[in-house]
Amino acid sequence: AADQKRFAAAIRAAAEALISIEPRLTEWDTKVGDGDCGHTLKGGAQAILADLPSYPLGHPREAIAALGCSIRRSMGGTSGVLYDIFASAASAALSAGSAPTATQVAEAFMAGVSAISRYGGAAAGDRTMLDALAPAGAAMLQAGTTVSAALAQAAVAAAEGAEKTKAMAAAAGRSSYVMAEALRDVPDPGAMGAAAWLAAASAALK
Prior knowledge:
By secondary structure, the chain is an all-alpha fold. Helix content is 73%, strand content 0%.
């Protein structure tokens, strides 16, 4: 029951972080994308908060799959498709049953990252959400002591990765159509969104 409460707290914190950062994501995406990143992520987050009481939190594999269902019905745009793919792949990588180990969580997270890269056609360094998610997954795999420790390392790596997008050329996504000068010193909104929810989930588990 304690594990389930912490799991719920982490999901709630992650969703609330996306809702609170929406104005900044929108501001950045107006400069480097088509302006809808913040609204898209906020819509998904609101659906997750609404559905959270019905998630089977005692069964992480099923809970992550349920999270994917919430995203699928509420989060439009490319972000919605990619986060749905992420949740599906992460869920499929977990074995049925109760609390997974830190290593199992890290491997599931990386399965999600790989699926985004495979289906979305981007890689780390292309100035997309993967610039936060890929280093986060790698940090998780190395941290592997407890889930909260792994998530703390992931949050740090995601924040650093998202920050680095300010200096990147865009090779994929909507930003690849934007003039390089317009991108300078503006972070990728998708990467910043990913870093925000990871930081919040990590803080909730401390």
